[in-house]
Amino acid sequence: MTRTGTVEAEKRIPDPSPARIKRRNPKRPGQIGWLGSVPALIIGLLFTVGPLIIIVIFSFLSRPKTGGGVIYDFSLEAYRSFLVQVDFLGNTTFDPRYLAVFGDSLVQASVTSVVCLVLAFPLALWMATRKPRMQNVLVLLVTIPFWTNLLVRTYAWMLILNENGIVNTFTKAVGIGSVDLLYTPFASQLGLIYTFLPFMVLPIYSSLAGFDFRLAEAAYDLGAKKMAVVRRIILPIATPGIVSGLLLVFMPAFGSYVQPVLLGGGKLLLIGNLIAAQFGASRNWPFGAALSVIVLVMLMLTLMLIAFYSRRSGRKVEISL
Amino acid sequence: MSSTSAPTRRVPKSLRLREFPGFGAIAVFALVFLYVPIVITTIYSFNDGDSALIWKGFSLRWFESVLTNANLINSVMISLQIAVVATFFATTFAILFALAVERLRAKGSSIALGILSAPLVIPEIVLAVATLGFIRIIGLQPGMLALMLAHISFCIPFALMPIRARLRGIGGTYFEAATDLGASAWQVARRITLPLLVPGIISGALLAFVISLDDFIISNFLSSSGATPLPVYLFSMIRRGASPAVNAIAVLLLVIAILVTTIAYLQTHRRSKKNA
């Protein structure tokens, strides 16, 4: 049940003997030759690295007069059109529309991260302080929604927020009348929080799970208040998990596509929807590619921040669930 | 605030710090929040009425209707074909990679792991459009082959994680003992490594299978009219609004998630019990 990708941020101790730096690590029993890593790497290079390189190249090309695709003419038009609009006379004016989409995505992703953290930290701490058997059951309970189809989880909220849904049945019964909930930015935000909550709980829990809570108890015995114990002892222990959780929630929420369409009704477009539209109806591949590059730059900045944190605090942040 | 029981106990029986003010309430709220939508969907899938939400009594008829819908069954078959192929290759490559990665130079193994785990943090929509552009460049069309190749790629990290975790848990001693007793590399791999890795392999394969079966965004960009995986078909149904048929499909997918999660979890648990 562990998803572990490593952000390679830990410090490596340089090998003292220069001869060994050149050579591959010696083979230990049970290992196979480095050739074994080749098939996975070829697939990774072809279908992860390859597409990313292509998308960066596409973002600097021009679009054909009709249809999708690109023509091989260097152009910065895609990046320019993110900020300015050219009218039919050739005048350029500042166009905040796309910047607003970017801002909306930032806001929705930030709210998602904060609300998930506020819910996940107490839940993870509560889980970590249960009896071992209970902890196992709770981890399973948090993991099941996590592995449930994204469309199913999103659809469930369509049922709840629907004009005939549970909430509206209740408000009508109470006499408030029906409330428009579905196809609003609020619904999209709620869907994002719901979808990504387990992504925050699991890493925080795993950073707390091995902690010996008798240490916290010792602090308590020495006169620390409960909240001081949380702040001064438990929070620092949980920080690598929190950092990893924030990355795993913020980035997918920032690029989300399904929730704004199904729950938001497409009223509040996020950058993920904008990207999808460029490769669909709008058929402006270079612009879609430029938007993707902007998202990737955000991701790289976030990863660099995490690496910086990891180096400064000396704690290894594993991107794990 | 004095110590109440023997200081030698390993796990405190009654941890006085077990409850932090308000945390229990938030925890319970978060768990309820996670499950209410799932429970409501499940209940309404047994609704006899023609509307998704107006309760007309218990019935299994929507499950019957769903399971006899030819287009839907077709999309399920497409999804299963992709998932089986993706799971097989992703798991095989992940096993080989896990056994070999430590042999790369330190820097090489970091880069290799970084490349393979990139799909975990890159927003899926970016990877989706990038892959669409890429397959065009290499002369592929959206369709089965493109879907399978992309699925193998993003399933590898999910297959790799339980396998690597398991490998770390085993430690080197078994292999060293076997080698000292004269086993060849091939014998060690076949008789020691693979049998010990089985729980990790099962978890990894199951997770890869579910990830492939559930994927919507990348599949949406790589599907063609002849190759429409289940989530792509489901999305087009959902866009038309809530319906009792969607409720039934949702519950069937939910059952798969519960089964897979529980089996994968029990495999992981078996490991921790044995090693304890």
3D architecture notes:
- The complex is a heterodimer of chains A (about 325) and B (about 280).
- By secondary structure, chain A is mainly α.
- Chain A has a domain at about 95-315: MetI-like fold (Orthogonal Bundle), CATH 1.10.3720.
- In chain A, about 65% of the residues lie in helices and about 5% in strands.
- Chain A has 13 helices and four strands.
- Chain A has helices at about 20, 40-60, 75-85, 95-130, 130-145, 150-160, 165-175, 185-210, 215-220, 225-255, 260, 270-280, 285-315, and strands spanning about 5, 85, 90-95, 320.
- In chain A, the strands form two sheets. In chain A, strands 1-4 form a two-stranded antiparallel ribbon. A two-stranded antiparallel sheet of chain A has the order 2-3.
- In chain A, helix 8 packs across helix 10 (about 225-255).
- Chain B has about 280 residues and is an all-alpha fold.
- Chain B has eleven helices and no strands.
- In chain B, helix 3 (about 70-100) runs antiparallel to helix 8 (about 185-215), helix 6 packs across helix 8 and helix 7 packs antiparallel against helix 8 (about 185-215).
- Chain B is globular, with a radius of gyration of 24 Å.
- Chains A and B meet through strand 1, helix 2, helix 4, helix 5 and helix 6 of A and helix 1, helix 3, helix 4, helix 5 and helix 6 of B.
Biggest interface, and residues per chain?
A-B, 120 and 126 residues
**Which of globular, elongated, flat, extended, rod-shaped describes the shape of chain B?**
globular
- Which stretches of chain B are poorly predicted, pLDDT < 50 over at least 5 residues? 1-14
Regions with little confidence, pLDDT below 50 for 5+ residues of chain A:
1-22
Secondary-structure content class of chain A = mainly alpha
Radius of gyration computed on alpha carbons of chain A: 24 Å
User: What's the CATH C level of the domain at 97-313 in chain A?
Assistant: Mainly Alpha
Binned, the helix content of chain A reads 55-70%
SSE order of chain B in H/E notation?
Answer: HHHHHHHHHHH
CATH architecture tag of the domain at 97-313 in chain A: Orthogonal Bundle
Radius of gyration of chain B: 24 Å
Q: In what range is the share of β-strand residues of chain A?
A: under 5%
